Amino acid sequence: MKKLFFIIFLMVFSFAITANAKKPKVVWPKAVLTLKDGTVLNGYLQNDIHFMKKNIYFSETQNGKDVKYKIVDIKSLVVDNAMQDGKQRTFILIDDDPKFPFLATEVFKGKHVVGYMEPYAFENTITSRTFTGIPYVAGTNYSGCRSYHYMVDGGKHVYYWNLFESKKINAKREKYSQKKLLKKISEKFKDYPTVAEEVEKRGLTAEQIHEDPTILLEILDKSLQ
């Protein structure tokens, strides 16, 4: 009996130590926030770069209280190591469609074409059923994604490519046959048929475009010169 009590004591003691252990602090990236009213704030972005759909959270100190800002009030947001690649990136507000504003960073600039990348979280809701057969939400997983857009000569932004940051997911979800790939590119660049023609001529695959989606913008920009 004494041995049993001792074992229980050790289990409880071990659990208490684990529960009270300090959780590792999140290291937020340094950032400079410029609002449309001219306000400039130096501090830290306190949310994942993929979660900037409507708001961002910003603090002037690493562990300070964060303040919520609407993205529609932002002129620019400069973030250190934003995509975990050691690079500093500047995000600007894209609001040519007032219903769907978003923050994006420039990834290509040619004579006629400018390309942007918008980081976002792809939401995958997992549903299951109880023993009664009634479905319920078992959980939601989020995957880091990058949405690519282009703009020709100051026109409207056009979405043309979606890229998962996990190569494993890309291989599973975005493995197009050449016929399907050409159809997709023809649709996304419907006003510029030269892009699909050049992709077919070069024999470019979806996997190659995944490595660098701006290759399509290089083709587009060259065709307009």
Can you describe this structure?
It is a single chain. This protein is α+β, with helices and mostly antiparallel strands and 225 residues long. Helix content is 27%, strand content 37%. The chain contains 6 helices and 10 strands. The protein has a 10-stranded antiparallel β-sheet with strand order 4-3-2-1-5-6-7-8-9-10. Helix 3 (178-188) runs antiparallel to helix 4 (194-202) and helix 4 crosses helix 6 (215-223). Mean pLDDT is 84; it is low at 1-23.
Supply the key terms.
single chain, 225 residues, alpha+beta, ten-stranded antiparallel sheet, disordered N terminus
Strand and helix layout:
Blueprint: H1 2-20, E1 30-35, E2 40-45, E3 55-59, E4 67-70, E5 74-79, E6 89-94, E7 102-109, E8 113-129, E9 135-152, E10 158-164, H2 167-173, H3 178-188, H4 194-202, H5 206-211, H6 215-223
Helix pairs in contact: 3-4, 4-6
In short:
The protein has 225 residues and is an alpha+beta fold.
Q: Helical element count?
A: 6
Strand neighbour order, sheet with most strands: 4-3-2-1-5-6-7-8-9-10
Main beta sheet: strand number and arrangement? Answer: 10 strands, antiparallel
The total of beta strands comes to 10
Low-pLDDT residue spans: 1-23
Mean pLDDT: 84
Tell me the distance between the termini.
87 Å
SSE topology string: HEEEEEEEEEEHHHHH
Helix/strand/pairing class, anyone? alpha+beta
Strand content: 35-45%
**Helix proportion range:** 25-40%
Q: Rg to the nearest angstrom? A: 23 Å
**Shape descriptor:** globular
